Predict the structure.
Amino acid sequence: MDDLIQKAIDAAGGIGAWNSVNRISFDFTPEGPSLHTRGPVGVAAAGSHMRATVDTKRQYVAFAPFLAADQRAIYTPDRTWVETAGGDLVEKQHDPRGSLTQMAPGVPWSAPQLVYFFGYSLWLYLTLPFNFLKPGITVEEVEPWTEDGATWRGLRISYPADFPAHTAQQTHYFDADGLMRRQDYTVDVRQNLSAAHYLLDYAEFNGLRLPTRRRIFVMGDDRVPDRDRLLIAADLQNYKITRD
C-alpha cells in the first residue's frame, strides 16, 4: 500500500513540489443533468465559465464570476456566501452541509448551497492524492479494477467525520504510472447517490500533473458505470500554480 501512495504522489508531482504550493487557480466550466435538477441556480451554473481559486493550506475556495458577471462566491466548510464584486453580501449560508443533508429531494438549492457543493468537491479533488497524508485519514489497498483492458490498483480512503468529502469512505484507482484514473463514492448531500468519477487528459502545470477533464456517471451496485447516465462533466483549464 505505501508504495502505491508514494507512486501516486510522485506521479502527481511529488511531495516537495506540493509543499511549496499555496494556491491553484483554473477556469472551471461545469455541465450536466445533475446541475439542472438543482433548480434555477443549477441551471444558471451549467455551462457557465468561472475562475476558481483553491487554497491548498486551508479549506477555502473562491469563484469569480459566480452566476453573474458582477458576483463572486466563497466556500469555507462552515459558511458559504455570494457577494458583489465590490464586496457587498448578496446571500449566505451557515452550516451549508447540514442544510443540504436535511433537504427533501427535489427542493431547489440556494446559491450558497451550490457554492458549498462546488467548493468542497474542488478542494478535495485538487488536493488529491496529497491529502492521503493528512492526520486522521486512513488508507488501505483493495482489489484492483479492470476496465477497457486496463487494470488499476485501488485504495480505499476513510476520512474523519469533520472532513468535507462526498462521503466518509471512497475508493480511488491508479494506473501503472500512478496517476489517479477513477474515484468511486456516494454523495451524501445527494441522498447517497453512487458515482464513478473519471479523471482525463492529464497535463503538467508548473511541476504538478493535473487532469483537465472530469466526467462523473451513475454507478451500479456492481461498480460498473452507466455511461448513458452522465451526472456532471467539468472542464478545468488554464491552471495557475502559486508557490511560496
In short: The two ends are 31 Å apart (CA to CA). Helices lie at 2-12, 15-19, 33-36, 40-45, 96-101, 111-127. The chain has one domain: 2-243.
